[in-house]
Amino acid sequence: MPYPDDEQIMISALQHYVFCPRQCALIHVEQAWSENYLTATGSLLHNRVDRVEQETRRDVHLATSLRLLSHELGLTGIADMVEYHGESQEFDHEGLRIATSLPSRKGFWRPFPVEYKRGKPKDHRADEIQLCAQAICLEEMHGVTIKSGALFYGAPRRRTDVFFDEELRRLTREAADGVHQLVRDGVTPGAVYTKACEACSLIDECRPKQVGSGHSTKAWIEKTIKESLA
To answer: Which of 43, 55, 112, 146 has the fewest CB within 10 Å, making it most exposed?
Structure first.
């Protein structure tokens, strides 16, 4: 059943959820947010594409900061960049509709999402899942099938191609379901300290070494205040 507008979650929440469900809850349930060096450099990278612009270069039409929506998965967000590649036909050799029409432009155009990330490719699939979620939104919006997209990483300054196979699509749907459940429950998962915590922008709010399992940051702060006044 399609999700109503008031139950839409941000596409970025899927990336947060896969990286750390607690981080996801702190941001999307408790509304906590901080910025460290890593998120700051990531913001600078995004600023290059986070302006609503459209441009056509030969047979590629570029659209930045494109609003996305999927009622099926209950997702909304903004794509860093969507490349629309000119195609001679609307359908591929398998009979799949891969291209759509664009306002004020002739022919057919195949959507190709590109997400910009700081650093380098990671050892988990959070970035791929975020990109796949964008593709699923575009598929629903345009009525097409999108087979691939790309992640652009700031450190190597090159693209990594991502293919939206059934396994990645399954992981994306599971992540979306997980975030929706997290928001509905309104309960922040307990803290589990790992080395990755040191690079997290929310480490001061999360306090993984101090906060006990199952307690929210808000509860920890209230407990600390009470103890200081006792």
So the answer is: 55
Distance separating alpha carbons of residues 120 and 104, to the nearest angstrom:
38
Q: What is the pTM of this model?
A: 0.82
Q: What is the pLDDT of residues 14-58, one digit of tens each?
A: 999 999 999 999 999 988 776 543 454 444 444 544 455 677 777
Q: What is the pLDDT confidence band of residue 10, given thresholds at 50, 70 and 90?
A: very high
Long-range contacts of 178-182 (CB under 8 A, 24+ apart): 178/17, 178/21, 179/9, 179/13, 179/14, 179/17, 179/24, 179/28, 180/3, 180/7, 180/9, 180/74, 182/17, 182/21, 182/24, 182/25, 182/28, 182/29
> How many domains does the structure of the chain reveal?
1
Q: What is the CATH number of the domain that holds 140?
A: 3.90.320
